[in-house]
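Same chain as my last thread, 208 residues:
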Amino acid sequence: MAMLQSSPASFKILPHSEERRRFQRVRVNLLGRYMLADRREYPCQVANMSPGGMALIAPVSGNRDERVIAYIDHIGRLEGVIARPFESGFAMTIVATSRKRDKLAAQLTWLANRHILNLPEDRRHGRFTPKNPSAMLILPNGINVGCRVIDLSLTGAAIATDQRPAIGALVMLGRAQARVVRHLDDGFAIEFLRLMHSDFLEETVTGS
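reply #2:
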């Protein structure tokens, strides 16, 4: 991860109280990584977010006003400073141009709508049934089991299996790392941690 650079004049860091007044926060469940000023990296989970800031569940909280770089799934690279440490993580403001804030607002609107509709993936990416629906699944406890891929898209899949990992649990479908987002009658739905490439999707997931 690159070192933090000084912010251009076009960027603005909002005080935490002002950020909370100006932007409505959205409850999300996004995984990512962050780097503090000492350049050490840690995993994190975003609990809520707005175009002006976010709250991270994190193993190391850092200090107030400490600079942070975060890479968040579905969002990308974000830069800011710690506004308020708390027991299980910290709240941070986001350094961004007006254009970047508009983009974040659009992303958060989609995430909020997906949560309300209980959608496991971005429906802009069409689903299909793979030619070979058989795949190997690695559960959170490391056990390998066979499963059937009900349908597949660039952002996620529905899997038929008698296993029921907890919502939010990390699994591997083939060579693709994913997070469980919904339980189904005959299995569960997952969301890939990275957008897949259409040319290699079936090969990555089912090996065919």
